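In response to reviewer comment 3 from the previous cycle, which asked for concrete evidence that the modeling workflow produces usable outputs, we include below a single protein chain processed end to end. The sequence was submitted unchanged, and the resulting structure tokens are shown without manual editing.
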Amino acid sequence: MKLVRALAIALACTGLVMAQAAAPAAAPAKKEGAKMVMGTVVSVDAVANTIIVKTKKGEDTLSVDAAAKIMSGKKAITLGDLKADAKVVVSCKMVEGKKVATKITESAAKAEKVSKKTTEATTSTSTTTTTTEPAAAPAAPAPAAK
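The workflow returned the following structure tokens.
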């Protein structure tokens, strides 16, 4: 009887050790979370739905999700509206090891600067026309003294 009890305890301990060793292998793969990319637009390909952003670490090529929100300040724009040298913040998710943009926000300050420059250029190129009236006729000579 003691032998059976000893074997049962040994078997139970072996089962616990095996379960602990197998637990990390059975754990789900690490969930790939959302990422943020901040930088300057190098190029945009609206046909292929890709954008290249220059960051402090180098250049990132991102696919753009068909349902991605693209904003310039508070205004919704299209991927084709983004221009090179625009400052952007891109929210993206990892899909099969690649970054896929889900939201792109163009810096409102950059958009305002462009708008302001356009306004200044329009103002500085406008012309002002002034009209002058002809000078008054010369005064009549004073009558001669008698």
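DSSP finds two helices and six strands in the chain. We consider this sufficient to address the reviewer's concern, and the full set will be provided in the supplementary archive.
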